[in-house]
Amino acid sequence: MRSGPLFSVLEPCATWTYNSPMPDSATTTDLRQIRLALENNSRLTSVSGVALLLSGLLAFVASGITGKLGAATPAARLVLQEVTIGQLAGLWGATLIVAVMLNLFGMILRARIDGQPLAARLGKRVLFAMLPSLFVGGILTLGLLVYGRLDLIFSVWMLCYGAALVAASSHSITSVKFLGMWTLFCGAIAMFPPANTLDSMLFMGTFGAGHLLLGIWVGVRYGW
After folding, report:
1. Which residues of the chain have pLDDT under 50?
2. Is 129 a domain residue?
3. Which domain holds residue 190?
4. Is 128 within the bounds of a domain?
5. How many helices (H) and strands (E) does the chain have?
6. Closest by alpha carbon to 94, among 126, 124, 61, 132?
7. Cα separations (Å) of 157 from 104, 106, 112, 122, 138?
8. Which of 15, 44, 122, 160 reaches 20 to 30 Å from 79, CA-CA?
9. How many domains does the chain have?
10. Which of 140, 142, 214, 141 is nearest to 178 (CA)?
11. 8 Å CB contact between 107 and 45
């Protein structure tokens, strides 16, 4: 039997150390499940309003250059020379790359400012949600170029991009879905006459004005 002043001092400490709680496997599993549930229900709000605004301005500039190259109407795009087609491909390819880089950089910057640690994972989910529609859009664009049916290219772009935005909205802000639905609507009516003669204006109303308005809303609601 332990006795004496020394044991009377050490015994409470030994008892506290022995009884200190340690996380068991069930607790760890519960914590992982809670974290996974939070990640699954999270939405990407680190969207840059400035990047969306600049993307809309880029679309307006590219559309203006497209008009100057004589490709504003479906009928004009059916008789384009190969040199002009190459210029248009370079123009819209560069516009796409710059817009993607702007929004990617803006998302990273906003995530750091907002302190959203899951932005990288959520960004991947948004990208993977958009990829199928964007892949279809790329294949259809290549097919239209090969078969010389550039009269349909704006409506195809709007349909595929609108579907990509609707898919991405399940992991991002709800406003993205509204732009996606608007883009789908404009792409659908631009496919058939008589609205197909105004496909370039509808295109500017989605890629240009749509991104401008979304950028303003995101900037006011979530930050620039």
Report:
1. 1, 6-7, 9-10, 14-18, 20, 30-31, 33-41
2. yes
3. 46-221
4. yes
5. 10, 0
6. 61
7. 21, 24, 32, 25, 9
8. 160
9. 1
10. 214
11. no
